[in-house]
Amino acid sequence: MAKLRSSRQNDLRLIPPRRLVAVLLFVSLLPLGLLGVGSWVVFGRLLNQKSLELQSTIVEGHAKAIDLYVEERVRALGFLIDAHTVEESTPEPILKEVLTHLNGSYQNAFVDIGIIDNKGNHLAYFGPYDLKNRNYEEAEWFQTVRKERVYVSDVFLGYRREPHVVIAVRADHPGAFWILRVTISSEQLKTMVHTDYLGTTGEAFIVNREGLYQIRSKTGPVMEMSPMASPVWHPGVLNSRVEVEGVTKFQATSWLNNARWMLVVQQDEIEVRQPVHEAMFYGGILISVAMLVVVATTLMATGYLEREIGRANRRREEIQTAFMRSAKLASIGELATGFAHEINNHLAIVSAEQTNIKDLVAELGSDEALGQELLDSVQRCEKQVKRCGSITQKMLQFGRRGASELRAVQLMAPLEETVRLMRKQAELRSVQLILEVEAELPAVQVVPIELEQVLVNLINNALYAIKQDGEIRIGARRELDDVLILVQDNGCGIPPENLDRIFEPFFTSKPVGQGTGLGLSVCYGTVHAWGGKITVESTLGQGATFTIRLPINSTPD
Q1: Please, what's the largest Cα pairwise distance for the chain?
Q2: 20 to 30 Å CA-CA from 219: which of 12, 50, 361, 413?
């Protein structure tokens, strides 16, 4: 039981192939899956963060650019009013020249230019609108400039009834002040805010503290209320996730123009995440391909291992079978040797007695009929003694090798001699013996008399299998480093269930009294004693082929 249990534990075929595949796939795919999930999470967050950082960078850059844009124009106006008096700036040709120089320096940033006195009266104006003699004393921008000297207004309509922004700078003189004012159109501001980095759903716009659009937006015209009613001031750039008309957007905001305006950059969440989704998609394809490669490789490796395990198990079984057969042969050989010795002792006595009886009968000579009958009985006893002696001789050969020595033999001569001896017996059954020997075969190490005995035994078995009308082919050829001797018949064949037992001692398929079951066992032991192998192949109803494989320059076991 212990040996059986150990054998089962060592038999790798007991591991189900599906379990082996599952274990290998689990071990292979688990790290790859964890790597894929980890990459999806880490790189997804990283790419998402980079997308939001791009929005923040756009907002921050545009906010600085717009502040710088306004600051440069304020400084230019401050330089003009510090360098000229109101009398020098009032003539219209002078204003025209100043506006021309300003637009030349700042890419046509200004729509018009005007000078207002400390009462809010328009002293001088140059531009496309009829604004002379207008009074701005009640205007918000005028009141603010009187207090703060510099003022940049929100977008408003004013007298011209078109959206514009006023930049006004106050010039102080003893006893009075005057104001230099220029206007910038809302479209000019939109040019400053526009960006090409926001895809098809993104936009950038400006709102004031009340949430009114300062430039035209995709979601509303200038000076209309935006979804960001009364935005709250915050430092730096603020990123947030908002719902606009049922669409989720990523939004980045930054205050500018001394916290009078808020720059807003927003883009649909789907479009912001699109690069992330594309990267994850291609990453998923890569991971999937890697997994498919792992699965295919695992299946191939498992199949290969399963085949190798099968070969190893079959080889082990063959070795175990050969070992058991050798052990059985050794045991039976010892038993046969003992039996043979015991039987030979008694046969020797019987033989001696029958010789004595024969001599006594010859001396009597009185009754010829009785004497003849006694002689016939003695001859029958002698015949049976010889037959028993033949059987015990085979048992001795099976159980113990004699002192015969191996020697190099060319196979042609013993094969021809064996065919010659067996041809008469074959002709009696209408069986042809065909000899096919390859030319220039190398010599093999055998005992010549034993070789003839083996061949005679195999040919006798073939004759028994054919019964009547057939052929037996005896051949020899070289195969790599071996010489093969083949005995092939077209008889009844050997049943599959008998193939594994064909060389076992005392196993025979012949009727009782027609076979001892020792012939093939003796052949098996003899061939293995030479260092060779004997095998059989058979198809039921088509015949059998016995193959003796003898290595060139072999040494005996």
Answers
A1: 193
A2: 50
